[in-house]
Design goal:
Helix content is 33%, strand content 19%. The chain has 986 residues and is of the alpha+beta class. The chain has five domains: 2-66, no CATH class; 81-326, Roll (HIV Type 1 Reverse Transcriptase, Chain A, domain 1), CATH 3.10.10.10; 334-538, Nucleotidyltransferase, domain 5, CATH 3.30.420.10; 551-655, Endonuclease III, domain 1; 690-869, Ribonuclease H-like superfamily/Ribonuclease H (Nucleotidyltransferase, domain 5). It has a five-stranded mixed β-sheet. Strand 24 (602-605) and strand 25 (608-611) form a beta hairpin. The chain is elongated, with a radius of gyration of 44 Å.
């Protein structure tokens, strides 16, 4: 460092050299100098690059080689190489082709309640079909698969992956099958068992079985379980497929049956280890393994054949005559973590130290300087004492007592994390770390979505610790990215393409995944932010491209146009930038907040932004997408469901609502509005003050029905016709007995006639008519008509005078009020055949105020039930453009003014004709996102379909309202068809 040069009075020269650390941080340079250096009594002049920071001097590779600290070994024992080549030549059939274990084919056992699962074959891109056919023929020729005809109970989806060299690999998704297979228990040796058998030996070799599981045959029944569909028909596996959960145990058993009898051999799934004390013994064992393989038609991978080694890497350990040592690569990740640059990074580091505190003596004393620096009132100032403290702690945490030995009998836990620049993971058992690992991301991987980086971290962890994780059952992976847990539960065909590739990579591992908050993800998080440098290799799985097509894709022209509009959209352009370089901790732009909340699932691919497998639509293209979505004339709910499967943009649901609600043609064909909440009307001040009247038609005869709102007193009289003259005659008869009311509520025809209006004025009462075609506006009259109709029907069946039934109705107590209509109207009961005592007929003064309170309470109960399936409709304003009900159709009009009756409005049509309509028969025309005159919508499948019919609501309508709908043929009351339950049918 510059400080050392100053103390030693060493002169510095200028230099153009620039240094950067592995994390791309620039190291400030002070100059260069030449210093005479002595190591191990050897003196040399060495050129040093002097830095401005206070660090310990280090030697480069050239200097280390000059001082004979590092030696380059350029040759190996030629005799060993000659013997190895001779063995490969002599046993060439063992290193060529695909072998097959002898004996009875393996049978996959299913659970008793197993249910067959079939998936429709997926379409395959045209340019892959020829190569797919060739691959199928190749696998068929070597006996791995066979073509089948006819129906199949099991059919798995086929996934085609293309390797960098252009060849194809065929995979099937075995999730459904794995859930139905009975585990075939077979003891796989633990790591400690393998190491124990190999420990203390001097000579080692290793064989790796070629295409492992494909050397295990399966029986006909099992083959029928492993069927997959292609464009060229269905094929079934004849060998054990990749990904079946029992494969590791089955392969261990098969391998042990063939080679387990050989002394000096240790088998771990598809690896055969040879260890011996002497060279002669070692070579004899190797020959016996090769001879056994030839006799049993088993083949090895020649590129992975290791021969006559003095130190062999086995399950993450190095085994030699001296003993077993842990792979030094395990602890390099922690050793190379950079110094903390701020309090946040220091707190992370302190958390890591605390996590393994019981393995560090005197921790509280050692980390005191660091703890002082984390206090809130202390400003950040990193000094040499802090550096020394960190180095000491790192030395202790990466020493042997910290890294526990792997125990295959215990569950395995892996913590994984991903940052913008790297991946980190830690292998743990009993909350003690076994191994750490980290690597940096490539330039391509840095552009992945956050959820893809997190999944890549899991792939890296499982593959990096493959010796520990492959074939193990109880693996628990902890991640701080909660959305990833749901992604892994979904069908593989329903996740984005890149995640499909990663999920395929980990299908061979048995693991459960759980969520761990980031504040607790200390070790893996630190490793991901301080990754070791990583040089990408030509890994086939990293370059896989999924070609099985699950749905249609954009044409080339539309893809380019859509991509251009996405880049030109100012908001989406920022989203692309953040997706590629990383999102900030927060965003101030309100237009970006929605995307920020969904950032974990957003990724950028081939010029398009995706949210999962949905395309994010730029603003300029949303109008076009809305037209496409509405092209099928679906309702709002179904249109939204369709949209949510394919596209996304903020406010999409609202835009769909506005677009469909602005479609005039659709609105004209739509069903009625939902019923409105019931209006609670103040009860009349006294009996016979407010009456309801209507005309009943029964057996081709007309009856004038009069019903008292207060007492529920019923009068109905037969009339020859529905003329005003006949109604006036009956009114005179009724009013001669009971007197004149204050108000009569009725419908428009015939009660809206001039003759009845004059009659009402002469006798000092009002006639109020309800809105046209709105029978619930005079619901009390409807109730009276139903009672009168039931009385007439029962009298006809019983062949009695209807007046006898009318008397009984008038004399029967109303349950909610505790009095009969006669008592409420006359303050006494009427004498009938049942009356016994005279005192029962004496008049009694009633408390009408209490009775009215009961009426209001009863109405509230009715309202609570009635309002369950009602909806308060939006308010109207004068000059609003609307649609109103005219007969069975919806016609356009404009709001002129509010009518006197509740919820009623006066409307003008295009010809200036005036109509009166209840709010329920009016729809507001909204201004949508564009012209929708060519579209229509079917609302039958939406929320209105759930509206049920309840008791009619009561509305009190003011009098003297003008007639409307003069061009509409007047009709009787609503002639709905009412189907009664069987028990009520007479």
């Amino acid at each position: 460092s510059k400080m050392i040069c100053k103390k030693k009075d060493i002169k510095l020269d200028k230099t153009n050299i620039r240094l950067s650390a592995y994390d791309n941080n620039i190291i400030p340079i002070a100059g260069k100098c030449k210093v005479e250096t002595e190591i191990n009594k050897k003196k040399l002049t060495v050129e040093f690059i002097v830095v401005k920071t206070e660090d310990k001097p280090i030697l480069g590779l050239d200097a280390c080689m000059k001082f004979d600290i590092v030696r380059r070994v350029d040759n190996i024992n030629q005799n060993d190489l000659t013997v190895k080549n001779a063995l490969i030549s002599k046993y060439h059939q063992v290193f060529e082709g695909l072998g097959k274990f002898p004996g009875k084919p393996y049978k996959l056992q299913l659970k008793d309640d197993a249910k067959a699962v079939t998936h429709a074959p997926r379409r395959v891109a045209k340019h892959l079909q020829d190569r797919l056919k060739n691959k199928l023929n190749q696998l068929e020729s070597v006996g791995v698969i066979t073509k089948i005809d006819g129906p199949s109970e099991w059919l798995h989806p086929l996934v085609i992956v293309e390797k960098p060299n252009g060849s194809l690999r065929l995979c099937l998704d075995p999730k459904d099958l794995n859930s139905q297979i009975i585990n075939d228990k077979y003891l796989i040796p633990t790591t400690e068992e393998v190491l124990c058998d190999l420990n203390g030996k001097r000579f080692f070799s290793c064989f790796d079985l070629k295409d492992g599981f494909y050397q295990v045959g399966i029986d006909e029944a099992s083959s029928k379980l492993c069927v997959f569909g292609t464009p060229f028909g269905k094929y079934a596996f004849l060998r054990l497929p990749f990904g079946v959960k029992v494969a590791a145990e089955v392969f261990q058993k098969k391998n042990t049956d063939v080679f387990g009898h050989i002394k000096g051999v240790k088998i771990y799934i598809d690896d055969i280890y040879v260890a011996a004390d002497t060279l002669e013994e070692h070579d004899a064992i190797v020959l016996e393994v090769l001879e056994t393989a030839r006799k049993n038609n088993i083949t090895f991978n020649v590129s992975k054949f290791q021969f006559r080694l003095n130190k062999l890497k086995v399950l993450g350990h190095y085994v030699s005559f001296e003993g077993v040592e842990i792979d030094p690569g395990r602890i390099n990740a922690i050793k190379n973590m950079p110094l903390p640059r701020n309090k946040t990074e220091l707190l992370k580091f302190m958390g890591t130290i605390k996590y393994v505190s019981k393995y560090i003596p005197n921790l509280s004393e050692l980390n005191h300087p660091l703890r002082e620096l984390t206090k809130e009132h202390v400003e950040w100032s990193w000094l040499q004492k802090h550096t020394d403290c960190v180095n000491r702690l790192k030395q202790l945490i990466t020493s042997a007592p910290v890294l526990a030995h792997y125990n295959d009998k215990k569950p395995l836990k892996i913590q994984t994390d991903a940052s913008n620049n790297g991946l980190g993971c830690v292998l743990m058992q009993d909350n003690r770390p076994i191994a750490f690992a980290s690597r940096s991301l490539t330039d391509t991987e840095k552009r992945y979505a956050i959820i893809e980086k997190e999944m890549l971290g899991i792939c890296h962890a499982l593959e990096h610790f493959h010796y520990f994780t492959y074939g193990k059952k109880n693996i628990s992976i902890q991640t701080d990215h909660k959305p990833l847990i749901n992604i892994l539960k979904r069908n593989i065909s329903k996740v984005p393409m890149r995640l499909q590739r990663m999920i395929l990579r980990v299908l061979r591992y048995n693991f459960d995944i759980s969520y761990l908050p980031g504040k607790d993800m200390l070790i893996a998080d630190m490793l991901s932010r301080a990754p070791l440098s990583y040089k990408p290799v030509n890994n086939e799985s990293d370059e896989y491209i999924i070609h099985s097509l699950v749905k249609s894709v954009l044409s080339k022209e539309k893809h380019e146009l859509f991509s251009e509009k996405t880049r030109n959209d100012p908001i989406l352009n920022k989203v692309i930038q953040f997706t590629e370089i990383g999102w900030p901790n927060n965003v101030a732009d309100s237009n970006l907040k929605v995307y920020y909340q969904l950032r974990h699932a957003i990724f950028y691919c081939q010029g398009l932004l995706f949210l999962g497998d949905r395309i994010i639509v730029p603003k300029e293209s949303r109008q076009t997408i809305l037209k496409c979505l509405h092209e099928g004339h679906l309702g709002i709910v179904k249109t939204k469901q369709k949209a949510k499967r394919h596209v996304f943009w903020p406010g999409m649901s609202t835009d769909i609502d506005n677009y469909i609600n602005a479609c005039n043609i659709c609105l004209e064909l739509r069903p009625n509005n939902p019923k409105q909440p019931m209006l609670i009307v103040e009860p009349p001040p006294r009996p016979w003050a407010l009456l309801a009247c209507d005309i009943l038609e029964f057996n081709s005869k007309f009856y004038l029905v009069t019903f008292d709102y207060f007492s529920k007193w019923l009068e109905f009289h037969r009339i020859p016709n529905k003329s005003s003259t006949e109604i006036v005659k009956i009114f005179n008869l009724i009013f001669a007995t009971h007197g004149y009311p204050d108000e009569i509520i009725c419908d428009n025809n015939p009660f809206g006639s001039a003759q009845l209006s004059i009659f009402a004025q002469e006798h000092n009462f009002k006639i109020t008519t309800s809105s046209p075609n709105y029978s619930r506006g005079h619901g009390m009259a409807e109730a009276g008509v139903k009672i009168a109709e039931r009385i007439l029907k029962k009298a006809e069946k019983a062949n009695v005078d209807p007046n006898i039934l009318v008397l009984q109705y008038r004399n029967t107590e109303i349950p909610e009020l505790g009095f009969s209509p006669a008592q409420l109207l006359f303050s006494r009961p009427l004498k009938d055949k049942i009356t016994i005592t005279d005192t029962h007929l004496h008049p009694k003064v009633l408390d009408y105020e209490k009775i009215k309170e009961k009426m209001i309470e009863n109405k509230k109960k009715q309202k609570s039930y009635y309002d369950r399936n009602t909806k308060e409709l939006p308010g109207l304003k004068i000059n609003d453009r609307i649609l109103f009900k005219l007969g069975n159709d919806w016609k356009q009009g404009m709001i002129e003014k509010q009518a006197e009756t509740p919820r009623s409005w006066w409307i003008k049509d295009s010809a200036d004709r005036r109509y009166r309509r209840n709010r329920e028969h009016v729809i507001i025309l909204k201004r949508g996102l564009g012209n929708s005159s060519n579209t229509s919508v079917d609302m039958a499948g939406d929320s209105n379909s759930n509206i049920q019919d309840h008791n009619e609501q009561v509305q009190v309508v003011p009098p003297n309202e003008d007639r409307a709908d003069t061009n509409v043929k007047p009709g009787l009351r609503d002639r709905r068809t009412i189907v009664k339950p069987l028990k009520y049918r007479d």
